[in-house]
Each structure stands twice: as C-alpha cells, then as structure tokens.
Amino acid sequence: MTAGPASREDAVPESHGQAGVVSKLFAYAPTTLIRIVVRFAALFIFTRLLSPSEYGVYTLVLSAVALTQTLVFLWIEAAAFRFVERARRRGWLPDLTATLGRLSIIVLALTAFAAGVVGSLAWGFGQFSLAAAILAGLGLAALGFLTNLRREVLRAQGRAGRYALIDAASKIGGLGLGIGFVVFGGWEGLGPIAGAMAALTLILMVDTLTWRARPSLGKFRPALARLAFRFGSGLAVAQGAAVLLATGDRFVIAAMLGTDAAGTYAAGYGVAAQLVGFMFAGTSLAAAPLTLRTFESRGEAESVEIARRYVQLLLFLTVPAAAGLVLVAEPLAHLVIGERLAASSVVVIQWIAPASVLAGLVTTYAELPFMLKQKTRQFGLLLGGAGVINIALNVMLIPAAGIVGAIVATIVSYSGALIAAIIMGRRHFPLPVPLRQLSLIALNTAVMVGVVMFNRSLMIDEFADTSLVMLAAMVAAGAVAYAACSSLMLLGLRKRSG
C-alpha cells in the first residue's frame, strides 16, 4: 500500500502547544462524533432486535475479533503509525510501504489458513454455529486490519479529511448492512458482524481502485521488517492485554452466568465505556500523533509540554463526564438500551463510568513513554499482568457477587495498571502528572454533581426518573454548572497570576 502525498484539503497544518492540541482535536471531531452516533445507534437498535442471549453472542464475537485483530495484526498497524513520519523525513517511505505490504500479505495468508483449519474442525464436530462465528470473526478481523492500516498511515500524516471519510463509511455502512442482515436475512447475533464485513469489503474495493494509479516503487527491506516487529509486537501484546482487560470478563460471565448475563453486562458497559472512551479516542486521535511528531522533530522538552496539555484536556473532559453518567444512568439506560436489558444495566453504567476514565488514562496517555521510547514490550507485560489479575478476580468474585464481582475486578485491575504504568513510564519519559489541575477539576465536578442532584429533586414529582425530559434537564444543568464553575475558576487563576 502506498500513502501518497497529503492533499491540500486533507492536510492538517502543524502546530504546537495547547492551541495545537485543540486545533487537531477539532480536525478529528467529525470522526469522533460519527463513531459515537453510530455505536449508540447500534446499541439502541440491536438490543431491541436481538434477544439478550443473541446480543450476548454478538458482543462475545466482537470481543474475540478485537483480541484477534490486536494480537495478530496490530503490530503492523502500529509500525505504520510510528515510522511513517520518520520514513518521510529520511527518504525511505517507499521501502517502508513495500515492507509493511509484504508483511501484511504473509499475516493475512496465515490467518486465512488458521481460520480454515479451526472452522473445519468445529464443523466436523457438528458445532455449526461455532464454526460460523469463528469464520465470521476472523474474516472481520482481517478486513478491519486492512482498513486500519490505511487509516493509521493517514493519521500519522495528519490527513484528517481522508481518515474521517474512510472511518465514517465503514461505521455507517456496517450499521446499515448489519440491520439488513438481522431483519431480512435472519442472521441473529451474526447479522451485525456480516454487515460490518460487507461494508469493509466495499470500502477496500473502492480504495484499491484509487491506489492503482500510484503503485509503490520501494523494496522489501528485512531490516525494516525487524524494526516493525520489534516495535509493533510489544505494542500488540500491550494492546492485546488491554483488550483482554476490557473484555475478558465477558467470557467469564458467559461461562458462569450464561450469555444472557454477558449481554446485560456488555450493554451497560458499552454505554459507559463508549461515552467516556470516545472522549479519550477523539483527543488521542489529535494529540498522540502531534506528540509523536513533536518528539521526532523538536525533541523531548517540547513533547513533554504537549503531553501536559494533552492530559489536562483529557481530565477536563472525562472526569465530569463519568460523574454525570453515574447520575443519569437510569434514564440513559432506558433511553438507549432495549427494555429487556435496561433495568439490569443501570448498575453496570454507574460503576463502569469511573472505571472507563482509569482505562482511558492507561491506554491513551500512560502508554506514551513506552510508545515514544520504543519500550512497548514493557507496557505489554504490565497490561498482561493486569489482565491476568482481572480474569483471576472475575473467577473468584463472580460466583459470589455476580456481575458486581466483575465490576469490582475491573476497577481494581485498572487502578493498579494506571499506577504501575505511570511509575514505570516516568523512568523513560517525564510524563506529566497534573495533580493540581486534577484537584481543581474534581472541585468543579463536585459542584456540578450538587447542582444536578438539586435539579433532580425539584423535578422528581413531575417527571419519572426514566423520562427523556428528566435526562435532558439533568444533562443541561450539569453542563451549565461545570462550564460556569470552570470559567470562574480559570478567571480567578488568571487574575491571581496577573
């Protein structure tokens, strides 16, 4: 695959400091918004079209796809993102492109062979549904890899427009086709998977036709292949451990409590993790490549300042969002999730919301020192340990406490992972830990919580807890209170400094 020069409309001008982070954030804002809308639409629609058990199967397949895609393919995607800017600056981008393309073909061939063998074995033992799920899952992982590889190159180049176009087409197309497979094809839990596969196939066909006019002139370089593997394999293990940490409990729940319980847990987890997680993802889309390019071109000192602005923005957005989710969990669950899953998902939303802040800090911020200094294997071992602890805690706690046990295991595991990642990461890179700003954000959030609870007490006699009016009023009151409190505090700090 060849990533041609950035077009004028796609290119995002380089900038630094807080203004740079914010400008990049707005450049990727449409991508983040579309992801939020599509994933919540999928949650809204599929929790109503599918039974709890079918929805559980669907989420288990998605979890297996994410784990497979991470462990098998992510190392190539990560190498593309990490080294494209360096290759462009030093003149070996064509060779890097050719090398990663050859590696992609090899890995895809091995994946296809493994899918055929495992699927045939399942089919031979009469496990037809399992065989279909395996083939669909591995197929989706392979197609997702090819699409992600293209997007990582675009993200490294700062080509937000092209990145957003491919991302939006895959998300919206996958949702629409998935609904069609469920409603008209009767594919049940595999319908959304089939829809995503069809959408990615169409996108890749169109993108391939576009690239034919500009073939790569580079050569396969074994040294580049080794560099990509050394860097990317560690990150793949790290992110695989992160996926296991985020989704491994669903498999334990399904084994111990059934796929119905796994579906309930996944629905509540999805609401909280997606809302908080997309704030992390949207900010990371902009700030992570900016930090990387600053580190490569201007050195460590300036990249530390970018990282400081990065984490301040993350905390400013996600801490109040998590607190707000705890408060509005009940009306939000009944609005977004199907009635068969909504009531039992409320407690999951309330506890996974703060856990999602911990998870986001681990996987989008605390990983920076390991990414920049190419110490991704250490990060992988760290998250791998946290993943093992999470699974062990799930096995111990779920029999006694049910889904609540899985929630406790998640919070404990992410808390330990964040503390360990910061301590280990600061040995390689002076990662900022803005405790003063965090205390101010916590104070503003506490004021927001008080305002929202007071507003709810005034309206509870007229509107039900689960009503859309109550949800809208609580969200509006919280947003206004937090914005006003933050503005007043910022004004006070500026007067004091002046």
Notes on the structure:
With 498 residues, the chain is mostly helical. α3 (52-90) runs parallel beside α9 (259-298) and α9 packs parallel to α11. The chain contains 16 helices and no strands. Residues 1-20 have low confidence and may be disordered. 86% of the residues lie in helices and 0% in strands. The termini are far apart.
Write the layout of secondary structure elements.
Layout: H1 17-27, H2 29-49, H3 52-90, H4 93-124, H5 128-156, H6 160-183, H7 191-211, H8 222-257, H9 259-298, H10 300-336, H11 339-365, H12 368-372, H13 376-401, H14 403-425, H15 435-459, H16 468-497
Quick rundown:
The chain is an all-alpha fold and 498 residues long.
Please tag this protein with its features.
mainly alpha; 498 residues; globular; disordered N terminus
